[in-house]
Design brief:
By secondary structure, the chain is of the alpha+beta class. The chain is about 55% helix and about 20% strand. The protein has helices spanning about 5-30, 35-55, 70-90, 115-130, 160-180, 195-200; strands at about 95-100, 110-115, 135-145, 145-155, 185-190. Strand 3 and strand 4 (about 145-155) form a beta hairpin.
């Protein structure tokens, strides 16, 4: 529902996994196959020597370092900026406006009416937090294809019927729609986790 680039994330994860898999397989072959290890030593020796000669030829001044390291630092900076940009693009799509309407002359009320998404979020969350069969409640609003939607995620305790929780959330959403006078699209997500499995229900004696 949010603006997270899931396709790009999956592609990067698959690419990173394949690269790590290939690197691990190559290292395993180097350790397990003596002929491959000898070939690697014969090939890597001249390459290291060539890199040393290249660094000597590309010095900025006598006795100073090579400008190649400046290029490497610039490339690493580009990688860092790209990673920060990628992280910043995760989870986008949040909205603070649940409903907005512009007044017209026909309504005799020229202006704008905006309903904050916090109204729906806090109302649903407060009602769900009163339940003792839920260990976690999260209510957030997103802009989905130009329309504000609410995502409700709950974590029931172990043994709680998910269909009952979903039905109760549906009743709360219907009551919210009746209160606001509009229908709010709601996505209900019922999850599970270690907290749901190991948390015991509170008892009052």
């Amino acid at each position: 529902m949010n603006g997270t680039p899931r396709g790009l994330n999956r592609f990067l994860l698959v690419l990173t996994g394949l690269l790590l898999l290939a690197l691990g397989a190559a290292l395993a072959v180097l350790v397990a196959v003596p002929s491959v290890a000898r070939w690697w030593q014969q090939w890597a020796g001249p390459q290291v020597q060539w890199l040393g000669e290249l660094a000597a030829r590309t010095r900025l001044a006598p006795g100073s370092g090579s400008w190649i390291w400046l290029v490497v630092a610039a490339c690493l900076l580009v990688v860092v900026v790209s990673m920060v940009t990628w992280v910043a693009n995760q989870g986008k799509g949040r909205t603070n406006i649940l409903f907005q309407r512009d007044g017209t002359d026909d309504d005799a009320a020229v202006g704008k009416v905006a309903l904050s998404s916090a109204v729906a979020e806090q109302s649903l969350k407060a009602a769900l937090l009163e339940r003792g069969d839920l260990t976690g409640v999260s209510v957030t609003s997103y802009d989905f294809r130009g329309q504000a939607c609410v995502r409700v995620r709950v974590l029931p305790r172990q043994g709680v019927a998910p269909q009952e929780v979903a039905a109760d959330i549906g009743s709360l959403v219907d009551a919210l729609d009746a209160l606001l006078g509009l229908q709010v699209p709601v996505l209900v997500s019922i999850g599970s986790g270690a907290r749901s499995r190991f948390t015991k229900a509170e008892r009052v004696r």
